[in-house]
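ARCHIVE CARD
SHELF: 3
SLOT: left
DATA:
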Amino acid sequence: MGKSVTGRALAEGRSRCAFVDVDDVRQLVVAGAAAPWEGEEGHEQQRLGVVNACGLARGFVAVGIEVVIADVLTPETSDLYRRELPGCVIVHLQVGLVEARRRAASREVWLTEDEFRMLHEADAANPPHADHRIQVDTLDLRSQIGEVSRLWK
């Protein structure tokens, strides 16, 4: 299981909590959509997805609803979350390359080798800023939720 399954399950365990999957927010662009690795347009849409997800989060928080956001974290997106949601807690769920390849092979959406490398090797070379990092390769869903829940303030 990955960030979305963990994030949704974490939100379901709270008393009043929304779950925002930034992949879903980005997919709201149906004409002219570009993946984050598809040049400047993809990069811009990645930033826009973060900003829009943060807008949703602010709306929920304003009425007393907690929020879990699931996204692929990069140094730039981490900085955007800090700017858009001051005081948020950023937890980076880390997965090793072997496990990442195993998970990618089990999904309907296939990444090219270049796309996979861009996502996973860039993370290793330039890790995003996070308050906490959790290595999840060998953790089941319950354990991942437990680890993140302990960090929730």
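SLOT: right
DATA:
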Amino acid sequence: MSWAITGVGAVASIGRDTDEVFSALLAGRDGLRPQRGFDQTNLNASQLFEIDDRAGGPDRPCRATGFLLDAVAEAVSDAGLTDLTGVPVLVGTGLRELRSVELWARGAAELTTDQLHFGTALRERFGATDTHTFANACSASLYALALGTDLLEQEATDTVVVAGVDSITETMFGLSDRVQLRPPAAVRPFDDGRMGTILGEGAAAVVLRRDTAPRAPLGRVRAVAVNCDAYHSTAPDPDGVRAAIVAAHRLAGVKPDDIGLVVAHGTGTPLNDHVEAAVTREIFAGVATQPLFAAIKSMTGHTSGAAGLLNLIVALRSMTGGQVPPITGLTDPIVEVRGFPLPSAGPLPCEATVAQVHAFGFGGINAVAIVEVGA
């Protein structure tokens, strides 16, 4: 069974819609800039992949909600929908509107508790009456996707909107700053010289429908596999990652030979990249033609709750457009990814029709989606 993707939307530091984001990725442009949202005095790091929406003014509340509304609006329009009354809207996030709470606590913003719930704005903007928010760390949006496909499979609905979003908070930036005492100058996924990750802001959304879709789909979700191995608070467990990939293949009815593109989580941190690459190499050992191996966080930063769906949209656009974006900053690939076709020097041609999409989060929250085009 598979589910039609009839609309997509994306917002990131490199673009305010899907076309802008993907064009920037193909061009190798990143959105890394000096952070502007909060005081720098007690911080080591000074850079973020921020969305520049403050017009030079001070920080303001409900920015994550604004990103979410923009991504959902694009996806809904793309799908030809005008009203989301009764349509389930599932939102994955890591931080929700925590930045708004920080501003309120310091007397820098006035807000009500209703404004902290994405459902309030979704109802006001789209008439959405059935909204749900899930906090599953950096796997949140693919977890929401898994729940969306469950609703379709159980015939609970014919249409579901799935989204992911995060804006950067001072609390999360400070945590990252203390964990990485030497701030990385860039995010370099799967490079031997990688030093860590840098946070990013973003949102992504997709509209899924059963086979009654009124228009030709952009692609299809074959399966989403999720697990929580609870191995460690931050360190990934190879067994948990492997189990998620194997389960995704089984649920989708595919073999490693069928996969032409892997869009990796690729945080640029030493341990996460090592584990993800080593398990992926093991999964595809013995395959005659290795899949393309892509990663986008060198240009978008780590967008947390939006990361999985951004990867999925990149997989779709790469397969339909015939080009996969480069992994910028990749000059000395780690041994685990050598042998995969790596777009390190620029975009590579992409003839894949089936892609594997990763999102792995703290606490061993693992999610893997299998998507296809042309079916």
